[in-house]
Amino acid sequence: MRNYPVNISMTKHDFYFGNILGDYINWPPGENRATADDNEKKIFESRFSEIFNLAVLLLQWAYFEPEDGKLNYPVIENFLDWCNKNNITPKGHSLVWLSPKAGTLTRPGWVPVYDEEKFWPRLEKRITELVRHFRGRIGIWDVVNEPVADPTELLKNRTALDYTSEALALA
Predict the structure, then answer these.
(1) Which listed residue, of 45, 50, 90, 143, carries a Cα 20 to 30 Å from 121's Cα?
(2) How far is the CA of 162 from the CAs of 62, 83, 93, 157, in angstroms?
(3) pTM of the model as a whole
(4) Which tens digit of pLDDT belongs to each residue from 123-152?
């Protein structure tokens, strides 16, 4: 039809477009660390789900397992429920982050340092446990964050290429 106005609007991205899903979203009772009031939280949730189709879930070791064996599964489970409800693809970030510049984000204080024989098996356990636990719910992972970082403080016998290859194989 000639001379007829046509309006086109995108309804869905053909690519993932996302951001970190943070403190505003659906913390379990007693865990709400957000400082926003309920109205700000609703606005954030609404805008996030309007703009993004991918949510980055923070799984940095120190954040997710601040004490040995005490994993913050409820927090991530609530994020995953929110993602599912809002048709947003979750992405796990990150299983391994060994950059010395990142400091305590890379590993909690209880993780053995300077002893690769103790550190590497603990890191292997972390990778396999998280991937296994979230199988079917998180299909996209940042397995290794900043793999060009030199991990000499933590891994004396592995280069960045070594530990990245091994972590990818485990995941």
Answers:
(1) 90
(2) 23, 34, 20, 9
(3) 0.81
(4) 999 999 999 999 999 999 999 988 876 666
